Hints:
The protein is an alpha/beta fold and 470 residues long.
Amino acid sequence: MTKAVTFLQTTMLLILLPYSGEGINLSLSFPGFRSPAPVYSSAGSKQEYADTTLAPGRKMGKVIKESIIAKTDYQIKTVVIDPGHGGHDPGCLGGSSQEKHLALAIAQKLADGIQRRFPNVRVILTRDKDVFIPLYERAAIANHNEADLFISIHCNFMPGSRATQGTETYVMGLHTAEHNLEVAKRENASILLEDDYKKNYDYDPNSPEGHIMLSMFQNAYLEQSILFAETAEQKFANFAQRKSRGVKQAGFVVLKETAMPSVLVEAGFLSNRDEEEFLKDENGQFAIAGAILSAFEEYKVAVESGTLAITPAATPTPLPVPASAPTYYVPDSPPATETQSRGTKTIPNTPPQYAVLEAPTYTTASSSAPASQPSGSKEGTGIQFHVQLSANSKPLDTSDSKWRNTGYLIEVVQEDNLYKYQARNFSDLQQAFEARLLLQARGFPDAFIVIYKNGQRISMEQAKRELGIP
């Protein structure tokens, strides 16, 4: 695969630093965010502080951690997901949508997906409602919580062109292409909406000098950032069936201020009517979030093994069932300035069993409906969500490795003279969507959601109507 990253030929600045056994500690000064941001559980009660202050005696600034590749026991422990814009900063305006709302919807689905799949990874959202968060504060949340990865979610726009479409993933860098420069300027324009922005940044982020200064901060983590960005773009193309416009470099302030591998995802163009409709649709949002989740899964394997190479992890070893219901965290933020508010919610701890039947047992659809309310159905409705991998007139040979490594219990249902292979009993539609995306990435590209009510197949439209899902 040809790498789409573009690098500038520019002057190299060599900084000689003292070396110690603890590694190199490089501090680059920038104004810090001084108010602690309380972290709330998804139930809304205070849990802990997402520290955005520096302890007394610590030098205000950004500390580049030791090389994560040198640590053989390195584990990704914290991920910060940043829904772009918010509040009085709507971002791009589509024909019937605003970037800030779509970015938040995708970010929340991604946060849910990571927390479900990796319950030992702490996930922080920079905002969980329609509020304005300054760029430097978003980065400070990531820095002072010692995040291992920063993912900023945005939507794109191309003035004067309704045909342009596709995803782009940016890493920190200097770029001469006019389009990349304009994208960076548009995102950095959020600075001008902040109070005391000159005090916070002390330079014009859109000037050539500003871009040169921006590019210095991210060099220590550029390799890891590119790895994640390349993997994400592969997933957008192969997994979400989007047009990948490749990995690019641009001087985004929110990437410059972070001291960890960082990427900015442009999920699609709101100037393209079809792509806008895709991003407005919940299925489209799940597809984008699922692609990023799949990229994270591969990236996690790569950096934790120290290989720093894209090695497909289509069949990773499933994680054990968490002992308690997973939650993800969001820093406290000012009251919402607009009517739309998307609060977080507790995720039910009803994960699928991580095993596959070596010799599948066969049941019929009519006999699969228990008399009592089944585990994994929507309470009081009798509705069950399953993901169907395949259907055949004869039993399939399930000895292939892909069947043994789905990460889900696969049952075979005899229905309509067909043997239907299904991962069954997801508690809600969102869990079924996430399972479908993961199963598609693990060798079952035709996997799709099937829904039953009291043992009888019903349509997606009927299920949504009965459950009150828009």
